[in-house]
Amino acid sequence: METKKYVDDSIVIVAQGALRQTQKEILKQQVKGVEITTLGRFIQSLDKTNTVEWTLCYECYQRFKGIENQLHYFKNSFLSSSFIDECLSFLDLLHFYEIKPDELPCIKESDQELKIILESIYDLKTRSICYKENLSSIGDLSHVYIHIVHPTLMEEKYIQILVGHQAHLLSPYLNKPTYEYYHANNPRCEIESIAQKIIDEKMDINDVMIALCDPKSSTVLASVFDRYQIPYHLSLSKSSSYAFQAASLLEFALNPTSETFYECLTQNCFGDMSDLIKAQKMYPYAYDQQYPDLQNQTFHSDLFNEYEIKDFISIIHKANIQKQKIIPYCQSLMSSDIQNILYGVDEILRHFHKPDPAFHSAMRKIQNLFIDSLPYLKEKEDMRLLIDEIRKIKIAENDQRMNSVTVIPYSQINECLPITFVISATQSHFSDFTPMSGIFGENYVANIEKFPSLMIRYQHDHQKMLDRIQNGQRIIISYPLSNYLGKNYESSLDIETLLQKESIPYPLDQANDIQETILPLSEDTARHIYVKKHEMKGSISSLEKYVGCPYAYFLRYGCHIKEPLEVGFNVQKIGTLNHAVLETLVNRHQKDYAKASLDEITKIIDLYMHDMKIVFPHINFDLIRERLIENMRMNLFILEEMEDHSSMKPQYCEYKWERILPINETVDLHLVGYVDRIDTSETTFRVLDYKSSQKKLQKDLVFSGQQLQLCTYLMQMSDELKLRPLGGFYYSFQNGKLELPYQKLARRSKLIETISTEAIQKEMIRSNRLQGWIFDENVEIMDDDATHVTGLKNTKSKGIYASNVFKIDEISDCIQEMMKMIALNILSGDIRLEPNESACLFCKYRPICRFNGSYTEKKQLVELPPCMRKEEDHGQTVE
What we know:
Distance between the termini: 74 Å
Strand content: 5-15%
């Protein structure tokens, strides 16, 4: 082997990962006229026939059609692109190892069919045959220098042939390295530590290499190094968006459904079609079908407010305009002539995209595929192979900066630089050996005599893997203890065996760790955003939203970012309908509302279903309608039982209230809200708040500001009605699971008894009791048998009484104090991204904040009132 020294007008063959480093060395040696290439590219350059490798897929496709009658086991998959690719890859191995079809196994039915398949394509010229033909005609190669330190089994054979023709095999610099071994909490901390180490030790970035055992680390590395302003060279080949657009358009031409049309829109095949995407998501119509006209429709309910209808009309209007622009282009893809379809795809891409280097690079490759594949496309269905090939198009992104850190996959290390970091060296990521899998797995190749055994291949790859880090100067190896979700990683056993020492924690300067990315607003800015005419308007739910997540409140009420429109019956729409049905029945029948007939319930629900069908005519709501009717029937049964045991009467539904609370000398908090229902007697009242799911009033949530509504309603109604508050309660429309056995064994009779209808009804009533707090001892007027309200007991000595009775004055003082505190925090400009767990559950702003941290436990804002300090609250669980 020769020392690494290059000469003028020579060809240097190196490993893929050494291209950039070799270029630097040649520049240092001031050698002229040197061509740097890889082994595969050099051998391909010897081919004078310009063989197009992927056209073999079409040849396979046609030949496989001819043997369809001979196949049974693979009949449903043998024409797929993935199956053809796998067959061609294995055929290439057969040609390389000179294995003939009669040497293939025929043990099982699948083996016999694979032999038939491979025999039908065995004469095709795969890469190995082309390479052998190219190498058989070469002459003197004394001008060629090979510097591949860790060749594969196949590369070793080709290198021997080249050396036999006087090519020079260059030796690596030999040096026993010093090792450092670290671990970090997670992948980001690991890369943060490396960045700080490079800066703190003032390393020459041209001497630094980072080898990624896990290629996915490249995204985090780019983010961290950009923040630390460390130049790096990360040569990536990524999928081309233009190629995916071309593939989506061809898929649409093959199968013009609403799904393939929507795929074309989301891939930006026609440029920015955001309004059309919104409309198509709500209305999955065909490309030439107009969206519903809501402008001249009459709505019979309040299921959709005027702002929602305006938004729908606006989106549909804009979408129809955009759709009219692209319909002619879509129609060009409906041609039966394949050549016209390809022309149509090319025209669409060129018309809707600005030409830039990435576009030109992708379009050259797409056009070449179109031209080369056209002779093979006999019918439209043959385009599926073309679609798969287009999706494989990669566009290289090369950073041209020479003075930078070299970042490569670990498997591409040719020679270590003076300082080499090996990162993500876990047990699962460090080993790069990949066994045979798929239809030609290890069990299959084990029965082929000439095919290298699993042990030979593993030992070769394993040794090459270890050799990569046994020659160098300073090698720093590290691994993360876990990923971001808490999954633990183990260190590589091979690394531990090689180094003979344990890892130590990476020193990470926390001051340089991730900084707060969401800065607070100034008080002037917050006041300008939230205060109008000395008033900060809002609702109790908006204050609760701020406590749950200040940043979500800012997006909604500060930036006025509307939540996206939803299709069909969501939870809010179901809640609105249930509220409306009860409100209508109470207004009509007062105390007897729960005795309404099924026909009357159905007519009310049908009014709302009529409006849903106007807005979403493509959705069948019959099943939802039946469920809503049945759910309301069951709830009215429970409410009828409650009314039969209560002397209170429904007095108000959807009662509007307003409260103005001074926050400071210049700003008032103006709250507006609606109480779902208020029941009254001569001297008392109670508040009912309807909920779509099970919910209970919890002391910790109330006095941390997360559950203010019910207590605020009681406080406000006490002031307005001048009656004593009896209690505030949640009523849930949700009919959950009943905790009852279907059958049970009677102790005395030893007989199995099936649960009765009466027992089921009794359990339904128990599970749907009113949940809340009681503020007056005269509880018998609202529940004379203590079975419909939680917190009530019925004993012989005391009769019906409440376990705990709270004082509304004390709680009202706490509620008003918390309102002021929350409002002042809002006006201070605090918009921290610190959500509690429930805040993220149904939040529509997750795509903006992308929160993935730990939830914040909200602390108590005020001291508990005296009436609650020693008492045990009841019903203390939360949804």
